[in-house]
Amino acid sequence: MVGYSLSHGLWGASAPPAPPTASLSSDIIADVAIVGGGFTGCSAAYHLASAGVFAVLLEARDIGFGGSGRNVGLVNAGLWVMPDDLLACLGDRYGGRLLTQLGDAPRLVFDLVERLGIDCEATPRGTLHCAVGTRGLAEISERARQWKARAADVELLNAAGAGRLIGSRAYTGALLDRRAGTIQPLAYVRGLADHAMRAGARVHTQSPVIDFSDMGAAWKVTTPGGSVIAPWVILATDAYSDPAYSDPACAGLQREQVMLPYFNLATRPLSEGQLSEILPGGHGAWDTKSILSSFRLDARGRLVFGSVGALRRGGRRIHADWGKRELKRLFPGLGAVDFEHGWYGMIGMTDNAMPRLHRHGRNMVSISGFNGRGIAPGTSFGRDLARLASGQLAIEDLSLPLTERRDARFRSARSAFYEAGAQLAHLSGSRF
Ligand SMILES: Cc1cc2nc3c(=O)[nH]c(=O)nc-3n(C[C@H](O)[C@H](O)[C@H](O)COP(=O)(O)OP(=O)(O)OC[C@H]3O[C@@H](n4cnc5c(N)ncnc54)[C@H](O)[C@@H]3O)c2cc1C
For residue 40, how far is its CA from the centre of ligand 1 (angstroms)? Predict the structure, then answer.
């Protein structure tokens, strides 16, 4: 990806190249058209092709252009909401299924990576949810209790135990989730696209979908260079449903989300001494603050540090300066820090922090609104939508109920508030 340093940063610089693709320049008949080349779309394409179903994936830009190529790379089990709240929101039938699916989803990712031999720095060694103060400790203690009641492989660590795995004394405890881990996200999504193509899927990049028309027995999915005619359509455009390509279905998906900007900064590779202190077990980590921070290592030993905010306009300087101060506070042994890479993207937040399953017409479905938890869920739901489109599952068998699409209220104002609020918090160094 040339010219994407502020959007894909370290991941763009260190991922193996994407498989060669071209834009769509003819009309094709397929079994399934997939719109969007992130985890969800590429997983759907891979699983369809592996089942012998002819799928064509259309991506407006490049594979991993959206959240899938920009994120932190924490392969989490579960959502932001507590397990019991998820059950209360979705009821026993869907809630129970969703909790099981999300708990198993990291294993699906790491198994796929291993089976397909995807070169993506996969580190299935667990994650640490780090508690800030007494409130943070109460939160992770409750999470631990709820997950343990479901026999999940999690452990509550006290401050000393957390300190040893994090390499910082700043936290009052941590929830170790052994189901989870980290990956290099752009490398992973490129690997999925590559294996989807090897299995028989066609992938066209630089091919924005600009129109869908219902032809009765099939959909005609139109791009500027050609079209795909298919009985099934899977929309996997999530927060990057770019209104510039404004087909009503994809643009509508984005309108039900409030955009939360999130940035990452990567240091130079740490020294061996520093690596023996900071995250020595290779865990991925994030904290309990409402303007949260996350940190993890990459394969070369760079510390990747992230938080809420956009690296544009004044934010670039404010967040980078804050990042240096914060790293010094968390890890005094680091000394002076220089960042080699900085990049950011938009997380699409729904009003109840749950993903959404929509039907946009006969045999056209979408899954979106991962709320910053899309690596494992996107892979897992991509597989399920593939099974739906190939007749192996009915829509009632999925882990989410079908819902009507609803625009988020005051979304532009709320998105702007997140961006400005993060700048203010990082400027003042306050701890929310
Ligand atoms: C900065 C950041 C940090 C995050 N951290 C994490 C994390 O640590 N762990 C985690 O699990 N999740 C994380 N997430 C969330 C996760 O990245 C997303 O939930 C996930 O990538 C969504 O995948 P997707 O395939 O559904 O959509 P995307 O990856 O966003 O892909 C959608 C694609 O659709 C394409 N598209 C849009 N409109 C059209 C059109 N009309 N025609 C053709 N193509 C179109 C876009 O170009 C885009 O490539 C983070 C997200 C961000 C932005």
Answer: 8
The residue whose CA has the least distance to atom 15 of ligand 1 is 372
For residue 252, what pLDDT is reported? 80
Q: At what angle do helices 5-14 and 185-198 cross, to 10 degrees?
A: 70
The tens digit of pLDDT for each residue in 309-368 reads 999 989 999 999 999 999 999 999 999 899 999 999 999 999 999 999 999 989 999 999
- Which residue range(s) make up the domain with 168? 127-178
**Residue 410, C-beta contacts closer than 8 angstroms, at least 6 positions apart:** none
Q: Is the CB of 11 under 6 A from ligand 1?
A: no
Whether 52 and 26 share a structural domain: yes
From atom 37 of ligand 1, which residue's Cα is the shortest distance away?
241
209/250 same-domain check? yes
- Tens-place pLDDT, residues 399-415: 999 999 888 998 999 99
- Are the C-beta atoms of 245 and 208 separated by less than 8 Å? yes
pLDDT band with cut points at 50, 70 and 90 for residue 248: low
d(CA 291, CA 314): 18
Q: Is residue 367 part of a domain?
A: yes
Q: Is 73 in the pocket of ligand 1 (CB under 6 A)?
A: yes
- Asked if residues 306 and 293 have their Cβ atoms less than 8 Å apart, the reply is yes
Domains of the chain: total:
2
